[in-house]
């Protein structure tokens, strides 16, 4: 097939996978917007039913209790724990099943369970176990998304300028959050069930489009697969051969293969962990995602409680955090491509994010102007490293030279990194629910501590990148002297 057609296919795949994961995040966002409606400040409000015995006309049982923050945190955690556990398993399935079928099933199930949460409004369900159970199944269904789309994009795109390309592509996370907030905000004050049902329908419809049009591999349409490394093919092969010669090879050993003509198989969990950098970036993402998902699930309620906006206005204002996330993800990709320092880029942004979070909590609610500016800045600094690790870094490690082009490893590596990060995503909202009754200041102290810990886990990799820069400068100086 001609080069122009292959480039068109690449653009189409980038657009389709962008749309697919936008829908995954779109369907996760409504719960954060609806929280402030499930438990409202009913003081001064008149019961339209004139029924003094009704306990649900203002608040929605079982979230009408004094411990409503803990209950809402429990609902969040049901989703996030299931997502974290399922992610480690999902990568294994993602390597062995058709991506197109796997995504179709996952998106259809995600749509069903998202809609079922909203149907609780119309079915007048007030049992906590129902909402927890729906969130558990939804969390498991949503694990089908990330390993699949990253693997598909990795199949179609090489390593050159990967940070920039994936920085733009990864804005689907923030775009999905923004659309989810805006869609949920339309019905949050009138019929909050539709805030879930409509996103559920959207992700299911896009799942059908994925089933009809997704192309998993360039070879399926006679396009040439991209080179995964910037180094010449001979250099990569030599490096891989020497790597395998140093120790016993096999699928267990990070994907090495003794026979060069043998088709690579799926990598094992332990083999993926042996890839240099996987453990460090996974632990960093645990704390970075803890911060990001705390904002994802609790920011609208924080704005309602501190700035005293209504549920819809708080949901709309919270989208600015995701606008900042788009900017931060693109900047992180560009900077890391230019400097060839993924770890250093992440670490610098995480360090700067800590004081910015403190300032947002201190002065960010003093006026609409300061709130807008601080939300965008905090969103860029918090989501920039998170976006870089889950996209460009995961793709780099999943196509590491020790794997000798075994693209099947990409799904497992992505699942390990994002699965570890999802443990933090589960801890963040849970801790926020437990700590927020003692004051929002304590929640922000927890988030600042998490950012610092995330940076510390990258310290060894940052040191190696600095050493590599110094070595490169010395070589360049030597060439000039010659």
Please name the defining characteristics of this protein.
mainly alpha; globular; 482 residues
Describe this structure in words.
The protein is mainly α and 482 residues long. α1 (3-28) packs across α8 (172-187), α2 (30-38) packs antiparallel against α13 (311-339) and α3 runs parallel beside α5. Helices cover 74% and strands 0% of the residues. The chain has a single domain (3-40, 62-224, 231-474), classed as MFS general substrate transporter like domains (Growth Hormone, Chain: A, Up-down Bundle). It starts with a helix and ends with a helix. The chain is built from 18 helices and no strands.
Highest-level CATH class: Mainly Alpha
SS summary, helix count: 18
Instruction: Count structural domains.
Output: 1
What helical percentage do the residues reach? over 70%
Low-confidence stretches: 228-261
Broad structural category: mainly alpha
In CATH, the topology is named: Growth Hormone, Chain: A
Oligomer: single chain
Task: Work out the strand percent.
Answer: under 5%
The first-to-last residue Cα distance is 46 Å
Number of strands: 0
- Assign an overall shape: globular
* Cα-atom radius of gyration: 23 Å
CATH superfamily: MFS general substrate transporter like domains
Largest sheet: none
């Amino acid at each position: 097939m001609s080069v122009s057609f292959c480039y068109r296919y690449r653009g189409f795949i980038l657009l389709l996978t962008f749309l697919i994961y936008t829908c995954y995040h779109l369907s996760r966002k409504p719960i954060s917007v609806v929280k402030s409606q499930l438990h409202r400040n009913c003081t001064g409000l008149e019961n339209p039913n004139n029924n003094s015995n009704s306990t649900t006309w203002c608040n929605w049982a079982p979230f009408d209790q004094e411990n409503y923050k803990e209950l809402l945190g429990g609902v969040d955690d049901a989703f996030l724990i299931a997502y974290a556990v399922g992610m480690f398993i999902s990568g294994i399935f993602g390597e062995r099943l058709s991506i197109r079928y796997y995504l179709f099933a996952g998106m259809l199930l995600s749509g069903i369970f998202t809609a079922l949460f909203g149907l609780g409004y119309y079915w007048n369900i007030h049992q906590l176990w129902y909402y927890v159970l729906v969130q558990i199944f939804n969390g498991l269904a949503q694990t089908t998304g990330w390993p699949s789309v990253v693997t598909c994009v990795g199949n179609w795109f090489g390593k050159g300028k990967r940070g920039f390309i994936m920085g733009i592509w990864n804005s689907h996370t923030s775009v999905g959050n923004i659309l989810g907030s805006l869609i949920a905000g339309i019905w949050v004050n009138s019929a909050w069930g539709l805030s879930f049902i409509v996103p559920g329908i959207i992700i299911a419809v896009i799942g059908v489009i994925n089933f009809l049009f997704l192309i998993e591999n360039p070879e399926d349409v006679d396009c040439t697969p991209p080179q995964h490394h910037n180094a010449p093919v001979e250099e990569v092969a030599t490096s891989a051969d020497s790597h395998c010669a140093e120790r016993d090879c096999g699928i267990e050993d990070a994907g090495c293969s003794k026979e060069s003509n043998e088709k690579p198989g799926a990598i094992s969990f332990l083999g993926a962990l042996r890839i240099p950098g996987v453990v460090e970036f996974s632990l960093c993402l645990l704390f970075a995602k803890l911060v990001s998902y705390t904002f994802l699930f609790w920011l609208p309620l924080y704005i309602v409680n501190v700035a005293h906006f209504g549920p819809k206005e708080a949901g709309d204002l919270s989208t600015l955090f995701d606008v900042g996330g788009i900017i931060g993800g693109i900047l992180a990709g560009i900077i890391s491509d230019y400097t060839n320092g993924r770890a250093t880029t992440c670490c610098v942004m995480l360090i700067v994010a800590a004081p910015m979070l403190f300032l947002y909590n201190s002065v960010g609610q003093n006026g609409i102007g300061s709130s807008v500016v601080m939300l965008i800045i905090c969103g860029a600094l918090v989501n920039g490293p998170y976006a870089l690790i889950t996209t460009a870094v995961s793709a780099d490690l999943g196509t590491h030279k020790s794997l000798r082009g075994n693209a099947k490893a990409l799904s497992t590596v992505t699942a390990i990194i994002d699965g570890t990060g999802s443990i933090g995503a589960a801890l963040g909202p849970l801790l926020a629910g437990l700590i927020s009754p003692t004051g929002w200041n304590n929640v922000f102290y927890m988030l600042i501590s998490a950012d610092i810990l995330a940076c510390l886990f990258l310290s060894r990799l940052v040191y190696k990148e600095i050493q590599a820069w110094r070595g490169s400068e010395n070589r360049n100086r030597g060439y000039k002297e010659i």
